[in-house]
Amino acid sequence: MKRPDPQQNGGEAFVNCDGTVAEAPRLKKIQFADQKLEFNKRPTKIGRRSLSRSISQSSTDSYSSAASYTDSSDDETSPRDKQQKNSKGNADFCIKNIKQADFGRREIEIAEQEMPALMALRKRAQGEKPLAGAKIVGCTHITAQTAVLMETLSALGAQCRWAACNIYSTQNEVAAALAEGVFAWKGESEDDFWWCIDRCVNVEGWQPNMILDDGGDLTHWIYKKYPNMFKKIKGIVEESVTGVHRLYQLSKAGKLCVPAMNVNDSVTKQKFDNLYCCRESILDGLKRTTDVMFGGKQVVVCGYGEVGKGCSAALKAMGSIVYVTEIDPICALQACMDGFRLVKLNEVIRQVDIVITCTGILESKCLKVDIHLPPFQASLRTPELTWERVRSQVDHVIWPDGKRIVLLAEGRLLNLSCSTVPTFVLSITATTQALALIELYNAPEGRYKQDVYLLPKKMDEYVASLHLPTFDAHLTELSDEQAKYLGLNKNGPFKPNYYRSASA
Amino acid sequence: MKRPDPQQNGGEAFVNCDGTVAEAPRLKKIQFADQKLEFNKRPTKIGRRSLSRSISQSSTDSYSSAASYTDSSDDETSPRDKQQKNSKGNADFCIKNIKQADFGRREIEIAEQEMPALMALRKRAQGEKPLAGAKIVGCTHITAQTAVLMETLSALGAQCRWAACNIYSTQNEVAAALAEGVFAWKGESEDDFWWCIDRCVNVEGWQPNMILDDGGDLTHWIYKKYPNMFKKIKGIVEESVTGVHRLYQLSKAGKLCVPAMNVNDSVTKQKFDNLYCCRESILDGLKRTTDVMFGGKQVVVCGYGEVGKGCSAALKAMGSIVYVTEIDPICALQACMDGFRLVKLNEVIRQVDIVITCTGILESKCLKVDIHLPPFQASLRTPELTWERVRSQVDHVIWPDGKRIVLLAEGRLLNLSCSTVPTFVLSITATTQALALIELYNAPEGRYKQDVYLLPKKMDEYVASLHLPTFDAHLTELSDEQAKYLGLNKNGPFKPNYYRSASA
Amino acid sequence: MKRPDPQQNGGEAFVNCDGTVAEAPRLKKIQFADQKLEFNKRPTKIGRRSLSRSISQSSTDSYSSAASYTDSSDDETSPRDKQQKNSKGNADFCIKNIKQADFGRREIEIAEQEMPALMALRKRAQGEKPLAGAKIVGCTHITAQTAVLMETLSALGAQCRWAACNIYSTQNEVAAALAEGVFAWKGESEDDFWWCIDRCVNVEGWQPNMILDDGGDLTHWIYKKYPNMFKKIKGIVEESVTGVHRLYQLSKAGKLCVPAMNVNDSVTKQKFDNLYCCRESILDGLKRTTDVMFGGKQVVVCGYGEVGKGCSAALKAMGSIVYVTEIDPICALQACMDGFRLVKLNEVIRQVDIVITCTGILESKCLKVDIHLPPFQASLRTPELTWERVRSQVDHVIWPDGKRIVLLAEGRLLNLSCSTVPTFVLSITATTQALALIELYNAPEGRYKQDVYLLPKKMDEYVASLHLPTFDAHLTELSDEQAKYLGLNKNGPFKPNYYRSASA
Amino acid sequence: MKRPDPQQNGGEAFVNCDGTVAEAPRLKKIQFADQKLEFNKRPTKIGRRSLSRSISQSSTDSYSSAASYTDSSDDETSPRDKQQKNSKGNADFCIKNIKQADFGRREIEIAEQEMPALMALRKRAQGEKPLAGAKIVGCTHITAQTAVLMETLSALGAQCRWAACNIYSTQNEVAAALAEGVFAWKGESEDDFWWCIDRCVNVEGWQPNMILDDGGDLTHWIYKKYPNMFKKIKGIVEESVTGVHRLYQLSKAGKLCVPAMNVNDSVTKQKFDNLYCCRESILDGLKRTTDVMFGGKQVVVCGYGEVGKGCSAALKAMGSIVYVTEIDPICALQACMDGFRLVKLNEVIRQVDIVITCTGILESKCLKVDIHLPPFQASLRTPELTWERVRSQVDHVIWPDGKRIVLLAEGRLLNLSCSTVPTFVLSITATTQALALIELYNAPEGRYKQDVYLLPKKMDEYVASLHLPTFDAHLTELSDEQAKYLGLNKNGPFKPNYYRSASA
């Protein structure tokens, strides 16, 4: 059967699960290049620009911290042209330099110390192998933390092949330490990017039955190239906002062929990615870029969701005077009760020292520390205002009267561009991914349909419980009498499904 | 048709909406007297004990603050035996002493200042009367704050008749200021209680079409005595945990005859009743009862829901060292990230100075500052331990080695027993009630079925927005461009329905 | 020798230590009646007004908490006309009603639990009696906490006679429990006041050799009536700002006959009286009087000394938006760094909900939570503004546009008028007093001259150390090596004398 | 006159002010090499090791931030061998590369924005030139911030010659921008170091009359080489703990020839160097070195002085569980009241994740964030414990059971080694230095003797006031009436001299 050329018919097309072709639904048009959500864009058109978008949209990128370890070595030979073997003589991989394996192993070991939950899963795996028989193809950032995940999946019985979801974020030394089944390096070309993915999917004697994706590119590739593969695939686990959005679109359009697990929106992950992580990274990012003293500074935080709450609390604790803007009256009232003056941006813009935007930019409420709510950023690009680049990632925007504000990361995400994400936060994500894979792989026929699911509450609780020992935290167990009194199962879940959270 | 006597058949029976009788479902048996949830219990059996339960279960009781204003006057004549007229010559009421009307008016005026949202609704009512034609029968605590609500409902076009939902909580002077249509006084007998309700419901020339209930007793009475009335009733607005629980039971059993609005679980109300209010009342309650210095004290907070979060944060801010216990790993992990040692109670019970329990005691997640998780309280009643009453509402429990803990309110709710609820919190509740009444009364046929509903998100946002001016808070309005970009309506709701909060 | 009549020569006179008379120095004229510092004012002129000043100027008055326990019993007989004996048959006292002794004992026992340092001193006293032979005459508030001090002094070997320093503050039941040597009751007349003091000083067979004073009235009385007594007196311990001020005046004038210890200004006491105590009492006082919700309220705190720091921190923690005013640039800069907008009062007066003044009113830096910086209070008494009394101790001051502020305690000290002082704070004071008495009584000839001294640093540290066990706090001891390295004595003092604190 | 050779007499000698020689006092022997205080050590013996000590002892080193801007350029020619001229044709300087002047000017301009007080002094200098005629020789770190100071001194009328107080800390581009009179570069040899100082002091036609020193090396050099110069010198301004210590030693020994101003111990500087700066730098330093997540981490802070208070508060605010150790009971009690468990190190060492020592190591109470209280560090060097270097400046110390702690900077100061000092903090220091120079230079004969002085309170207040506009902070001015009432001068000082701070 001839596959249609989407470009020819001037629109977008989709290969359905059964191999037939359908007109793709018109996705909402989003204007700004680096947030493009076009799922159907032809691979060959994806240039550096749109690939690097992944850096900002994957919520737990460790790009900047990685940067410090990975040499931009002088070896200019493409990995695709190299013949390398690992210490076991295996050559089924494509990475930058196998000699960095020992250095990479050291990084992985450090990461292991802050990823207690995965290590606990490994211990349990000595008895049971819940992923025995699983053939996982993964496409994520390739960092020390991912390595701990991959090696945990192996310990649980799975076979894995892995590509990078971003052309810049690979820690080469980590890729070298993993080697077998890994196809990734820092600085891939566009063509390399898809070549690596293809090498993970389409290799003789290998039929993947699980997908772990971050951004949806891997899922996309299989949809485009190997739709029949979905017949053997038990499920997709997707972590990014973008990828999840794509899956919901597929589901709405009736084109989702297998169950998919949205691990982005699990309670635990959300709290860590947003509130807890940003509470620390806002300080870190500002300090590393500007050495600013927080005490006494006037700051306006735009948006009082979880990210805004974290940023506001941290800066207040450091002695800044924080103003908040909001559009949602409920969040606005919370800001008031938490002790922040609720203002409109224009009321304070001339008096504040720092502006931080923590506004949602996608329908799916991707709350982020960014600085690029477009209408606002645009409003700073006026003849009245002077822009001055003071350091890498730091601009001053100067009013005629000399008052200036600090603009960081030129509109990219501060917490990813200018600070690092603690391993412990990535541990939450990785554990959630591992459990989602286990759940989908072992779920009895019929439990999950061709739809997008949230991780079951109980597994979310399990992720949390696996991280408690790190803090030497002792969970209380209900007595039989108490459980009965409360009408709860002693092992959870502890919140009823109809429980409506009061957080927003 | 003869109505069966529930007592005769030794069980519980229910009059269905159509007037037929059915065996009532066996409600879950709950052991502790003051939390009994038996909806069908016969009125005549409801003694002081079970009536006073309402005090602890209505979430916004102002009993203790009321206490200081209401004289326990020496006038022993029952209000039922008195002939009183208000200044307009009206005698359709039954209250303690009409002479207290001026004093009560003063209290109402003070309350008005802290209930800006209701006052705003009144202003709007000069143009439109959204409750024109409404005949509301209410059964709530009768306090200055309730009075502001009642008079707002009148301003919106409604006629009201009102009884007290609790035999002790009525502020007599406020009842005097209201007078017309009010049947309530402090210290009602059991018989008085139901007599007052009946006088609100069953009076010549009056057919109520809306119910505002707090605890479910009014609803119960109409179910038992006047089931046919439901034919003209447009809906029930219920505020208490207990009453909401009863409504869900009725709904499950297929016996709910009219739409009901659960205003207890609206986001705004929950945040105020639990987090914001308890953050202040824990300090207030402890200080008023014990004059304890918080600085340096070791405290264990049992439960880290919204109430536990508020209590822990407040005490930490005052220099206490706070430990937390939890059964839910997600809440437990939050406690860790917020800087609290997660322990089991027995690990710290001998070293802490204060124990605060903030545990849920009902399936519907009634989070409260209480001290009476029964198995725990029981565990303090051992021969090893000595109890010493040091002041009203304050007991010391003393270990053999002389270490002691302070036990407050003997198991009743600290925030209601030992501190006051700020009017502003009650304003949130009252506004939510008013909007729920408006919504149910004006909803087009078919919008609501015979089920229990939460207040629509948008109205919840409206309640919040009406309270922002108090804080001189300026909400940002989306531009058309921004709204389009975000895919939101400029007027809300601002969170999609499938938004899953990360709070627990 | 004839003593001059101060009134006759129209001025003030002083009896010198040797019995001669000198013209008194003109004291600085202070305008406001209730802060008059006239040391030499004739007793007979001291009316209720000027006596009650002591209530506000003694920094650790427990008047308001006392109020709740002491019956204003119907027994109108003056204690001076009663014949009472305690259970041992002793009649050398004059108190309201000996039958209240058991109730008073209970109160004393409760206080003992929060005064660990004094109890520790008692334990040590089983071996040594550092006050053996001491004959102490005291004049302080007579409360449960003072009783613990008095009985500790007795346990240390002293004999005591005691009068009240304030005509209203005596807890009658505590006086009854103490009985022997106590001359005090609630509601003394002016004449009673001096009669009681005289009975403590001038009784056959009793020659006091130590003075413990609070306000200077006792010292004054001896100066006036029995100047020769000073020949046998080893020293004066004075606690109040007023009394200390008087002593410094005497010292400057060369009229101080004995060493005096200023215990008001010891580091530990200052921190507790100001920062730690006010941090809690500002919340307590505001809540008890107004039930105000702190969250979201705008507050201006005038003065950013220790009291202002405590108030600001507490309110910020509760979600208030706090502005600060200051005259001292160093304190002002601290406010900025701590995250408070520094403003002038007139810039925010119309927008804030609450004004709290924490300004010094005496040269000796008596920092207080007050509301009566006179020029400010006066500025609120204009025809433009309406005052409305809403409750006891609560006034609303209303601007023409309806904006209003809450004025508490009409200019008296909020923390003393509207909240209680925790026993633990009083414990710090009482221990400091006890140690000062021990130091002065046992000091070798020549260590102290006829001057005013601060408690030696080392003893201040000792007061602190005696309170650590309450918190189960474990102090680190320097090893010999470390002490040598640091050039410190292992037992302190730990701060050199020339250490200049950075606090202001 | 022949100058004695200190080495010859085998001991230490001193040239007295009058040119005679005296035996030097034996300084207290301090064991640890990098804290040696030997004032008299011969220059030629000062190797890299002891020079680099200055890095850690100067309290406001900007070394690490400087590092990122200064190229370790490939130009290996010694500046001493270069012929360079600035744009004005002047060649009286010795710096690395005059071509970097523009880059350096940019850095200076950025610094100017955060040093408002110096810029304000410049503005005033348009009218008056308080340093007209001053010939200042300086020896400090040469950074952008110092440049702002130097150019301010010039604007005030002074002539300046400047050397670096540290062989590594010079920002070459800043030195290039200053050029005239500057003798300094990054990476000086020992010989270069003294050569540069000498070039500042001893040049034809130049007789310095003021000294600005940081560490005492310049002062030392003049004492050794040109003692007669002191006859024309009006005073010394010294900033470092070490230098101040040396001056006090000289003063005690009667060898101080001119007045000296200790600017290290001014209130404002202390608060900023310790509390406010460390509150931020502890987070910054930990994050940059370890990317650790603060939330939930257990931390022990050793020492609860200003530095310990800042660190503890910051970590608590970020969700860490903080324990404190102390030797001083007063500070210990403060820790308790602030909500920290007071423990001994050995009680928690195995359970905590991070140990931070903030202990004094010098008599003069130099509080620092360090990790090298020697007995403690030594106790970690046992066979039981494994040390693992994980990154630059980061070691893990591992217990046999696998528990590990993070050790940073191997015992050097975390806040200087691993984070930067905000320009605003350096602004406080620089302004204090400028005012001290003005004061000493203009003081009338006799105001200052040959002794070490603290900056007058009023000037300290002035430093603070000059920094308030940065925060748009509005200081309140006393009215005449208020000032009179309070007995204060309207312009300060606002705290009496006998005011005893309560901070420790």
Automatic annotation (TrEMBL), chains A, B, C, D:
Give the cofactor binding note. Answer: Binds 1 NAD(+) per subunit.
**Entry cofactors:** NAD(+)
Taxonomically, which superkingdom?
A: Eukaryota
Please note every region of biased composition (Basic residues).
42-51
Q: Indicate which residues the UniProt annotation says bind substrate.
A: 143, 214, 239, 269, 273
Q: Which residues form the S-adenosyl-L-homocysteine hydrolase NAD binding domain?
A: 274-421
Annotated protein name in UniProt: Adenosylhomocysteinase like 2b
Q: Where does NAD(+) bind?
A: 305-310, 326, 415
Compositionally biased spans, kind Low complexity: 52-71
GO BP annotations of the record are:
one-carbon metabolic process; S-adenosylmethionine cycle
Reply yes or no: does the keyword Translocase apply.
no
Family, according to the entry, reads as follows: Belongs to the adenosylhomocysteinase family.
Entry's Gene Ontology cellular component terms: cytosol
Region span, Disordered: 38-91
One Pfam assignment: AdoHcyase
What InterPro entries does its record include?
Answer: Adenosylhomocyst_ase-like_sf, Adenosylhomocysteinase-like, Ado_hCys_hydrolase_NAD-bd, NAD(P)-bd_dom_sf, S-Ado-L-homoCys_hydrolase_CS
Which terms are listed as keywords in the entry? NAD, One-carbon metabolism
